[in-house]
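Course assignment 3, question 2. Fill in each field.
Student: A.L.
Task: Predict the tertiary structure for the chain below.
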Amino acid sequence: MLAPKTDCLFIPLLGTPASIGLARTLAGQKLNKWDCSGILDDALLVVAELVTNAAKATPLREIRFQLSRDAEGVIIAVWDSSSRLPEPKAVVELGLEDLDLAEESYDRNGGWGLPLVQALSTCCGYTRDPRGGKWVWARLAARHAP
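Answer field:
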């Protein structure tokens, strides 16, 4: 079991697509340092989804990314200044016929990130920041490398 640590990662980012890759890279390095490679793939997907949502909610504005750990696992949290709260799509079984594969609609088939975050995490949610905006977070139980 992990002991509480103070070596968390906290970094301000700009709400751009480039921030997604940077957050994933930094998170991957920190998770490897913490010997949490057992959750690496899941954690990096959660990082990408949360940072993507924050960047879309506040394009070209500051967002904040935090990765920390405690005895229960790893916490991924992203702050943005938008007051709009996350709304996950209802989980339904989809087939290819449900997707609009026309070239002009290709990028409009998204919105499934939060259900993925819910499925991969032990718990997740959001917390309004009293100074404005919100933190969207997810906790993953740490599994160490064999």
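Instructor remarks: The two ends are 14 Å apart (CA to CA). The longest strand covers residues 62-70.
Grade: pending
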